[in-house]
Design a protein that fits this description.
15 helices, alpha/beta, TIM Barrel, two-stranded antiparallel sheet
Length: 375
């Protein structure tokens, strides 16, 4: 615990007042064969074999407050994250990020924006917000391509613009996919206006990472103690989003679409029998081509953030080991309050019921295949 506190204190002190300074000043990357910064890099072993580990759920904060201040000040992302989060998440904090990865046995991070979607923004502002987010995240990742791959932002409220952003970010910036909210300013992801976005994602063969930023109406639904908007609201929003994509036929229209869901896939992944039963027994469920559970074994993936060994065992039993990927929610796995999993790789190692091959797949094998990561 004291080492953890010293590490956090060191991060805050070292990064105070730092901001993004460009990729040319961030070239001191560590290859898998090099030692860690200021200490030994943890090597994760399973069954006597070295495992390449990939954290599919980590974030980077790009300061967009200047773009937002004259439009909708209450959305200012620094305020929602707090000064500590805003500092540790910056692209300029890359050395501290790498040190944390080295200490915790993470070889690769899949880096996505800290959830701040701003789907209310008009076309011009949305274009500038996404450009700043994607350029800076891609710059950080490309400067350490042996440790990071990037997922970008999209202006989904303007589907035609989002399609242009996807084309550019994948082909020019090297991004492997994109992060989205569970809805677009209250509109479900399954609305037909978003079909061109899913068609482009299928065409490009990239990953969509659904990560809720909140739940519509949460102030009325989740008042009081318990951090309920996050604890209950985030997995609930994912459950609703995925259910719409399944039952409205989006996944049937785009069978090559690949979606990874944060926080263990929400509640749907652990209660698929009820959705399957709806297809079998209820006239209220529209016809779909497969049982909802089958989409999890084909197009849908989950991160591993379910917090207990039994929860992970059950998740694997429901969706298949090839569709579960290590996630930590960095940097929300450290500091307070934190809703990530601070155990990281140790949440996978030694889980009863998981074979060595299962553990290797979740720790990195599935992500390397899905995202085209090479060791």
């Amino acid at each position: 615990m004291s080492n953890r506190r010293e590490f956090l204190n060191g991060l805050v002190g070292a990064m105070s007042g730092i901001f993004f300074v460009g990729c040319d000043l961030m070239n001191a990357g560590v290859s898998p064969q090099q030692p860690a910064r200021g200490g030994k890099r943890r090597q994760v072993m399973v069954g006597g074999r070295r495992v390449l580990t990939v954290d599919v759920h980590s974030h980077c904060y790009v300061d967009i407050d200047e773009l937002l201040k004259e439009h909708k000040p209450d959305t200012a992302s620094t305020g929602s994250l707090g000064p500590f989060r805003a500092t540790i998440l910056k692209p300029s904090s890359v050395e501290a990020r790498l040190q944390h990865m080295d200490e915790h046995g993470i070889d690769f991070q899949v880096v996505s924006p800290a959830p701040s979607y701003n789907y209310w923004a008009d076309r011009d502002l949305a274009s500038r917000i996404v450009q700043r987010q994607n350029d800076q995240i891609a710059g950080m990742c490309s400067s350490h391509s042996d440790r990071f791959v990037s997922l970008g932002a999209l202006a989904l409220q303007h589907p035609d613009l989002a399609v242009e952003q996807m084309e550019y970010a994948v082909k020019k910036l090297g991004m492997r996919g994109f992060e989205t909210d569970g809805n677009v300013d209250g509109e479900p992801l399954s609305a037909r206006k978003f079909d061109p976005v899913w068609a482009k994602a299928e065409e490009l063969g990239i990953l969509i990472f659904i990560h809720p930023a909140g739940t519509p109406g949460s102030q009325l639904r989740f008042p009081g103690n318990g951090y309920l908007d996050n604890v209950i609201g985030h997995p609930l929003e994912t459950t609703v989003a995925l259910s719409h994509l399944i039952f409205e036929g989006t996944l049937d229209r785009y069978p090559g679409l690949k979606i990874c869901c944060a926080h263990g896939g929400g509640y749907l992944a652990s209660y698929l029998g009820r959705s399957d039963h709806c297809v079998e027994a209820s006239e209220n469920c529209k016809p779909v081509k497969k049982h909802p559970s089958e989409y999890f074994k084909q197009q849908l993936y989950c991160d591993s953030i379910v917090f207990t060994a039994e929860g992970l065992r059950h998740l694997v039993a429901e969706v298949g080991v090839s569709h579960v990927l290590l996630g930590t929610d960095f940097p929300f796995d450290i500091g307070a309050p934190h809703m990530g999993d601070p155990r990281g790789v140790d949440s996978i190692l030694g889980v009863p019921g998981l074979s060595d091959d299962d553990q290797r797949a979740i720790l990195g094998g599935n992500a390397t295949r899905l995202l085209g990561i090479s060791s």
